[in-house]
Amino acid sequence: MEDFESLRVFVCVAKELSVTGAARRLGKSPSNVTTRLQKLEESVGAALLVRTGKRFALSETGEVFLGYAERLLSLREESLHVVSGGRAPGTIRLGSMEATAASRLPAFLASFHADFPDVRLELRTSPSLQLIDDVRAGRLDAAFLAFPPSSMDGTFPENKERLGLETLDVWEESLLLLHPAVNQGAPGLDDVSVRTLAAFPQGCTYRRLAEEALQIPGSADWHIQESPSYHVMVALACTGRCATVLPESVYRTLAPVESLQPIPLGRVMTTLVWRAGYDTPTFRNFCATLQRQTGAD
């Protein structure tokens, strides 16, 4: 148990990049955290963290070790939860696209928490391809993401089993291109006049679909302005100099903006993805609740 506690301390420091911050989160003294880190590094035989001014950074060894530490902690908790028959409180490390976290998950997670208040849910957002990597590497237990159509990427979605993934289709989204208003009622792609697209970084399926629809790959005319959030993207579109891409479910959460018009880009499925063989009582309850509320199959 002590070794697992040292791993937990290391993971927390790696996230906080601060002994003081990690100690506060863990309810320990900074000296206790430092001692555990030193003993863990002695056991590993390598420095896991390096000091950069008043903060820490992961060493190259620490970057590699972090993934294994997270997987070991997750497997320990998973095994305890399974052998207890679900009586031990479980944790689900959940990933999601920003859009799903904003428009779909709040109501569902609130309902799930009401039914299973002892379950701890951890949530972080990333582009879809990063989420796939995180699930496969064991950094996440499951994630809500959108696979690129097979016409764009032969790796997905037909080869999910080869990737060691299981899936559940959940929500079908209508994808929109939000464009500065033009002088007609129902604009189409032929009416796009700007040549800048505000979008998430590479790995975002919605960005990929918009790029294909606008024939951006290989074009010298287009510029991609990467943005960290939909609110920033919409603000950029409001300048009249760029367009942005987002699902209708997110568009409906925004205050009306008369200077922008939506152009349909088609429909995209949001899928829950998890590692093949990941089967705990907590996750079974999670999937059952999701299916009951959404009709997913």
How do the strands and helices of this protein lay out in sequence?
Elements (H helix, E strand, L loop, with lengths): L1 H15 L2 H8 L3 H15 L4 E4 L2 E4 L1 H24 L7 E6 L1 H6 L1 H11 L4 E6 L2 H9 L5 E4 L19 E16 L15 E4 L5 H9 L9 E4 L3 H8 L5 E5 H4 L8 E16 L5 H14 L3
Parallel strand pairs: 3-4, 3-5, 7-8, 7-9
Antiparallel strand pairs: 1-2, 5-10, 6-9, 6-10
Helix pairs in contact: 1-2, 1-3, 1-4, 2-3
Characteristic terms for this protein:
single chain; D-Maltodextrin-Binding Protein, domain 2; alpha/beta; 41% helix; 297 residues; 3 domains; globular; Arc Repressor Mutant, subunit A; 11 helices; two-stranded antiparallel sheet
Would you mind describing this structure in some detail?
The chain is of the alpha/beta class. 41% of the residues lie in helices and 23% in strands. A hairpin with a 2-residue loop joins strand 1 (49-52) and strand 2. It starts with a helix and ends with a helix.
